[in-house]
Design a protein that fits this description.
about 35% helix; UDP-N-acetylmuramoyl-L-alanine:D-glutamate ligase; about 450 residues; 3 domains; 6-stranded parallel beta sheet; 6-stranded mixed beta sheet; Protein-Tyrosine Phosphatase, Chain A
Length: about 450
């Protein structure tokens, strides 16, 4: 009996354990931290052996295969030791893919991947396809392969998940964009991060497709210097394409097969340039899966958008409060500020992942009247913006940040939470940060 060791007892780890048990492995789950009550119950109910708050090496180094949580860096001593012992260390995505013959559409990128994933899933589901959604979102891919076996999966994949693949392949891969993010995991080398994203196409064949942003410098540079077997399917806001998707006269035009799609941007339910790109990518993937033009258009018109992503929370005394807690890097915040059409009080800060805020200066100068810092260390934010914004205030939590912002804002202005940073200094995660912000707004 082969031994599967799973490192990390969260959503992806417990999913991998369930699939491993179903496929006849002897399974052991090990988490350096505490395993939450919800996941512990699943492990106990399924009689899966586990430990928490420690990694017992003797129980791990005897594995035939190790599935590790995307949150564990490759540089950790235990992972280095496993690799020295030639024990394969893979991601849950790689492990689960071996056990499904489903059609896989996977989506990666620094920004836009959640919206694109949810939008594509919405289109395919409405069109009657048997489709699951997994990866960085929803229930674990491995658990769904074990319990549901959909015919199609839309997977949102982070660079960390892609780092752990060997043979995994997607029939359609979407690369939304690549901007500096998570550089702390890639030795502050942007090229290593880019290479990590492009692992999404490493096993693609001539019969597969790579949908990509043709306006993105990092993507174009990689494609000039490297080869992929997949058919390239570009989208652009800057140029008209003979093959692919582009914008002309405020219409989104998609021309990749006999059914040309022409749709006014005003009818899209998601707004902003970045969302036009997300809609182009999702639409082309749906077309390649033979979804009818009319079905795609209807889904693009009624899609609801993503919580914590430019989400309108409430208007209080004429001031709009907007929750963009999902903006954990500079590029995401750039999009948010670009979409603002009112004078803005900007709430920013958290755990800096090597951010360069200079790209934001022109937008901040044009739109932001005050900055409210929401993080433990705000020196870099203050140093970057003190010459373009008169008011910079430091706060110690969501409630205080909202109250201060309300005092600073006048009727007709907006308060935007778009932190640009990870949330782990004051919050559990970006969802927790967004919920605390919304609760604070509602109790004003």
């Amino acid at each position: 009996m082969k031994r599967l060791v799973v490192l990390g007892g969260g959503e992806s780890g417990v999913g991998a354990a369930l699939l491993g048990k179903q496929k006849g492995y002897e399974v052991f789950v090990s988490d350096k931290g505490a395993i939450s009550k919800k996941y512990k119950e699943v492990l106990l109910n399924n009689k899966i052996d586990f430990e928490e708050k420690q990694h017992t090496e003797s129980k791990i180094l005897n594995a035939d295969v190790v599935v590790k949580s995307p949150g564990i860096p490759d540089t950790v001593a235990l992972i280095v030791k496993l690799k020295e012992n030639l024990i394969p260390v893979i991601s849950e995505i790689e492990f689960a893919a071996k056990y499904t013959s489903a059609n896989i559409i996977s989506i990666t990128g620094s920004n836009g991947k959640t919206t694109t994933t949810l939008l594509l899933h919405h289109i395919l589901k409405n069109a009657g396809l048997d489709v699951g959604i997994a990866g960085n979102i929803g229930d674990s891919f491995a658990q769904q392969v074990a319990e549901q076996s959909y015919e199609n999966y839309v997977l949102e994949l982070s660079s960390f998940q892609l780092d752990g693949i060997e043979d995994f392949n997607s029939h359609i891969a979407i690369l939304t964009n690549i901007t500096p993010d998570h550089l702390d995991r890639y030795e502050y080398d942007f090229n290593k991060y880019v290479a990590s994203k492009f692992r999404i196409t490493k096993n693609q064949k001539e019969t597969d497709y790579l949908i990509f942003d043709a306006d993105d410098e990092a993507i174009n540079n990689w494609l000039k210097e490297n080869k992929t077997s997949a058919k390239l399917v570009p989208f652009s806001l800057e140029k008209e394409l003979e093959y692919g998707a582009y914008v002309k006269d405020n219409n989104m035009i998609i021309n990749i097969n006999k059914e040309k799609i022409n749709m006014p941007l005003s009818t899209l339910s998601v707004k902003g340039k970045h969302n036009t790109k997300n809609a182009m990518a999702a639409t082309m993937a749906a077309q390649l899966l033979k979804v009818r033009r009319q079905a795609i258009k209807e889904s693009l018109e009624d899609f609801e958008g993503v919580e914590h992503r430019l989400e309108n929370v409430a208007k209080v005394k004429g001031v709009a409060f907007i929750n963009d807690s999902k903006a954990t890097n500079v590029n995401a915040t750039y999009y948010a500020l670009e979409c603002m059409d009112k004078t803005t009080i900007w709430i920013v800060g958290g755990v800096d992942k090597g951010n360069d805020y200079n790209d934001l200066l022109p937008l901040v100068r044009e739109k932001v009247k005050a900055i409210v810092c929401l993080g433990l260390d705000n020196e870099k934010i203050k140093n970057t913006f003190e010459n373009v914004v008169d008011i910079i205030v430091e706060t110690a939590g969501a409630e205080e940040a909202v109250k201060v912002s309300q005092k600073l804002a006048e009727r007709g202005e907006a308060v935007l939470l778009s932190p640009c940073c990870a949330s782990f200094d004051l919050f559990e995660n970006y969802e927790d940060r967004g919920r605390q912000f919304k609760n604070a707004v509602r109790s004003l």
